[in-house]
Design brief:
alpha+beta, Alpha-Beta Plaits, 2 domains, 11 helices, about 60% helix, about 15% strand
Length: about 240
């Protein structure tokens, strides 16, 4: 068990600020959670003192950690204390709704056709996930750059990626150039999963950006499954 400390913070004005502060502080604690309302920083296993952390934050913006609000020893990591269903409720609901709609389409067609079900499911997946990312494009790009291999090197890729998902969703929805859509999906999702796998293997306690910045989802094997599921469907349809 490690010390679990909550600090006040000034300078936060939007979700993009939250993502920037979380990214800056991530290497300096075992777990970091930043909230906009209330403006607080929660650190588990803090590795540096407040003065050092404030020096780091000055390099990314006008942010400053203030007074310690709560500190407790032997408190479990907040992510561990949550149940799986509580933590991943937004992601589970999104998948459920997409699955429900695609199954309804199959039911209305009178028979279940796998090669019709999968493109419709993938259309729903990409369109819905791109929607959440586009709600806060700058915030997503900042979070995505924390673990995606290409976004780390080319920051602009984080701004482009949601539009790639939007384009793929549209192609699947219209059933236009399916082989091209499947090939792009296989490449993009396989490459994306590499960064996620490395982050999970290195036990990085960072937020998954799959649903943008609107939800605080942790980066775990669930994210790996999500990416590889899309890559696997694309590969199946290519074969």
């Amino acid at each position: 068990m490690k010390t679990h400390t909550i600090y006040s913070i000034t300078g936060l004005t939007c979700n993009n600020c939250v993502a920037k502060v979380q990214a800056a502080l991530a290497p300096h604690a075992d777990f970091v959670e930043v909230t906009l309302k209330p403006p607080q920083v929660t650190l588990t296993g803090q590795k540096d003192n407040v003065d050092t952390l404030n020096t780091i934050l000055k390099n990314v913006g006008n942010y400053q950690i203030g007074a310690e609000i709560l500190s407790a020893s032997n408190v479990k990591n907040s992510e561990d204390s949550k149940s799986f269903l509580t933590t991943y409720k937004p992601l589970i609901l999104v998948f459920f709704y997409i699955l429900l709609v695609t199954l309804a389409i199959e039911a209305a067609s009178g028979n279940f056709v796998l090669h019709r079900f999968m493109p419709n499911f993938m259309a729903g997946f990409f369109l819905v996930f791109s929607f959440f990312k586009l709600l806060d494009l700058a915030g997503f790009a900042s979070s995505y750059a924390m673990y995606d291999l290409l976004a780390k090197r080319v920051y602009a890729y984080g701004f482009i990626y949601p539009f790639i998902e939007l384009g793929l969703g549209t192609l699947y929805l219209l059933d236009y150039r399916p082989m091209l859509a499947n090939a792009i999906t296989l490449i993009v999702m396989t490459f994306s999963s590499i960064g996620v796998i490395l982050a999970v293997m290195n036990k990085q306690k960072i937020r998954c950006a799959c649903l943008g910045t609107g939800f605080n989802l942790p980066m775990t094997t669930v994210t790996i499954i999500e990416d590889l599921l899309m890559a696997g469907m694309a590969l199946w349809m290519l074969i």
